[in-house]
Amino acid sequence: MRGSIKLGVIAVNITLSLIILSFYNVCHSQSLSDRVVGRYDINKKRLLAISTGMNLFMVGQGQLDLDSAMLLSTRAYKFSRLFPFNEGYDNGAASEGRNLIDSGRISEAERLFNKINGDDRIRLGLDLGTYYLFKPGMNKTDLDQSLKYILQSQKLAALSDKPLWKNESLSLLAKFCAQKGDIAQSQKHFSDVVKANMRAKDKKGIALATANQAINVSVGNPIKLALLEKARPLCRDAGLMEKEVEVLSNIVIEYFITDFNISKAKQAELIKLQNAAGYFHTHIALNAISFIEDVQGDYISSITHASEAVKVMEQTGDTKFAAPFYLRLAQLYFHMDKKEGINLLLKSLKNKSKETQLFWYNSFITCANQMIVFNSPKEALKFLAPVIREYPPTTLYQKMSLAILQGHCHTYLNQPKIAIKFYDLYSTLAENFPAKFAYAEIPSHYLNIAMFYASLGNQAKTKWYVEKAKPFLSGTGSVFNRSKIDFINFKLDSLNGNYVSAIKNYQKFKLTSDSLLNLSSVRQMNFMQVQFETKNKDQNIKLLTQQGELQKARLKEGDFIRNMTFGGILLLLVIVGLLYNQYRVKQRSNEQLQTKQDEISRKNSSLENLLEEKEWLLKEVHHRVKNNLHTIMSLLESQSAYLSDDALLAIHDSQHRIHAMSLIHQKLYTSEDVTTIEMSSYIQELASYLRDSFIHGQDIRFQLDVDPIELDVAQAIPLGLILNEAITNSLKYAFPGNRTGLICITFKQVNDQLFKLSVADNGIGLKPNFNTEKVSSLGMKLMRGLSNEIHADLQILSEHGTTISLTFSSKRVVTGQQMFSLNQS
C-alpha cells in the first residue's frame, strides 16, 4: 500500500512538471502581436479591426472593396467577421449563432434563428442581416437576404420592451440604404435613431448614432465632413474615445483627398488621440504622414515618420500587412539614390503568397524598378520573369504597374519600339482606373512616359501625356511631379527653338529640384542615414547582446534539461525498482489468492453438486406427492362407484381439488425451477381439465387472459384451489338447462406488487339475497380460508353473471421479465 502511495506522489509530481513546461511553451509561443492585442479592451480591438481594414482599402487603391478589406482584417486578428459592424449590441460574449456564421455554416445559423426566441433571436437576426449586408461584392441575392433579416428583426424589436433592439435594427436598415446608394433614406433612418436616443437622454447612444450616420456616407460626399465634425465632440463628451479616434480617422481621409496640409495636421492630432486612448497601433497614421510629406517634397520629415512607422509596427508585432510600410521607407531611400531600400523590399517579399499578393506586389514592382534605376535593367527583367510566371498580375492596378515597369526596362535597354507597346498598354489600362485612388503614382507615370516621348522628339505624344497628368496635380499634386512638367516644357521649347522660354522653364525646374534636394538637404539626409545606420548598429549590438544572453539562457536551460534528464533517469530507476518490488509482492499475493480460489472452487463445486442433488430430491418428492395424490384420486374414483347423490358429488369435488394440487406438483418436478410455478400454463391446463370433467355436449367456452407470472409454491397451491372452486362453481351452477355460456379467466399484474385473479361468467348469477358471509358450503369456506392464508382480498359480484376476484400482493411473485433478468444475472 505504501509503495502505491509513493508511486502516486511521484506520478503527481511528474504531471505537475509537464503542466508547467507546457504552460511555459504556450506563453513563449504566443506572438508579440497577440500579447499586445490581448491587452486591449473590446473597443480598442474593434478600432484595430476597423483601422486596419480602412488602411488595406486605401493602400489597395481600388483593388479591394471595403467589405473584403474588413474581412481580411478580422481574419488576421482572429476576430468575428461581424466585429467592425455590431458595436451597438455586441459586448464580446460568445454566441452560438455568431460562431456558426464565422465558421461559414450559414444554413445552420438560419435554422437556429427559426428555433430560438427573445433577445437571442433578435441578436441573431441582426447578425444575419449584417453578414449578408457586408458580404464582399454587391450580389442582389445577398442584399435581399439582408433586408429580409433586418425587417424580421424590426418586427421582433417592436414586440420587445428594450429600446436597444429598435435602435439597432433601424441603424442596420440605415446602413442597408447607404449600401444601396439611397443616402437620403439612410440619413433619415439614422436621424430617427438619434432622436430616439435624445428622447431617452442617452448620450452614448446619440454619439454612436451620429458617428455612424457620418461614417456611412460615401467618401467625398459634401455632407460627410460636416457630419463627422458634428459627431466628434459628441463622442468626446460621451467618453467614447475609441469612437472619436474612428471619426477623426474618417476626417483625415476626407482631407487626404482635398487638402494634404490639413490632412497632415489632422493625422498628427490623430496620433495624439490614439496615444491618449492607450492605442499603440499608430503606425498607419505615421505612414500616411510620411506619404504626404514625400509628395510635398519634405523628404527629411517623411523618412523620419516612415522609420517611426516601421518601428511601431515591429514593436507591436503587427507585421501581418508589413509590405506597404517597408515599401514607403524603401521609396524614401531611393529618393536619396541609396540601394539599401532594396533590402527592405526584399524583406517584405520573404513570405509572399497568392493570398497576400495584393500587399506585396507593389514592393515587387518597386524593387524591380530600382534595379533599373541603378543601371541593371537586364537584372530587373531577370528578377521579374519567375515572379510573373508564378504570380501573374490579378488586379487592374497590378497590370498597370507591371506595364509601366516593363516600358521603363526597355527604355533603359534602348528598345523604344517595345517600350511604346507597354506604355500604350499602360495608357489603355489607366483609362479604367478610379480617379479617387490615383494619388501621386498615376500622374508620375504619365509624366515619365511624356519624358520618354520628348527624348524621341515626339511633341504631340509628349503634350498628350502632360495633359493627362495635369488634372491630378492640383491641390494634392506632388512637387516633384510639377518639376517634371517644367523639365518637359524645357525639352519641348528646345525642340521648337523657343530658347528664351526653354531657359525659363529650365530655371523653374532647377529652382524646384534644388529646393527639393539642395546641399543642406543632402547633408541632412546623409546625417539622418548615419543616425539611422548608427541606430541600426546599436540595435544589432543590442540584438547580439540579447542573442548572447539567449545563448547563455539556452546553455543554462540545456544544463537544466540534462540535470532533469539524469534526475529523470534516476527517478525512473527508482520507479522501476518500486514497480518490480510491487510486482513481486503482488505475485506472492496472487499465488496465495490462487490457492484460496482453488479451495473456494472446490467447495463451490461440492456445493453445486449438493444443490443439484437437493433439486433432484425435491423433484422426486414432488413426483411422489403427485403420484400419491393420483392414488388418492383413484381410490376416490373407486369409492364413487358405490355412492350416489350428494356423497358422489362430494367425492367428485374432492377429486377436482386433489387434481388441482397434483397438477402443481407435476409442474414442479417437470420444470427446471423447483420453487416457482409458471401460472399461465397451469391455469390453462386446470381449466382444460375442469371443462373436460363437467361439460358433456353443452356449449360453454373458456376465454383466458393470463400474464406470464411465476408464483412461489406456497402461494400457487392456495391460488390453484381457489381457482378450482371458482371455475367449478361456474360450470355447475351458472348455466342450467344446457345454456350456452362464456367463462373468462384473467390473471394480471396491476402494479409492481399487486396482482389480480378473476373468474367471471355470463350465467344466471347469484340469487338476489345471496350473502357470501352466511354461506357455509365447503367450497366457499375453502375460498375464504385460502384467501386469508395468502392475505388476499376476495370479492364475489353478481352483475350479468358472477365474478369472483382475488387481489393479493407478494414480494415472492416473479414476472416473466423479472425471471429473464434473474437468469441473465
TrEMBL record:
The protein's enzyme class: transferase
The lineage's top-level taxon is: Bacteria
Q: What is this protein called?
A: histidine kinase
A single GO molecular-function term is: protein histidine kinase activity
Where in the numbering of this chain does the Histidine kinase domain appear?
620-812
Keyword terms: ATP-binding, Kinase, Membrane, Nucleotide-binding, Phosphoprotein, Transferase, Transmembrane, Transmembrane helix
Query: What parts of the sequence cross the membrane?
Result: 7-26, 560-580
- Establish whether keyword DNA damage is in the entry: no
Catalytic activity from the UniProt record: ATP + protein L-histidine = ADP + protein N-phospho-L-histidine
Entry keyword annotation includes Kinase:
yes
Entry EC number(s): 2.7.13.3
- PANTHER family, per this entry? ETHYLENE RESPONSE SENSOR PROTEIN, TWO-COMPONENT SYSTEM SENSOR PROTEIN
Recorded hits in Pfam families, A to Z, give:
HATPase_c, HisKA_2
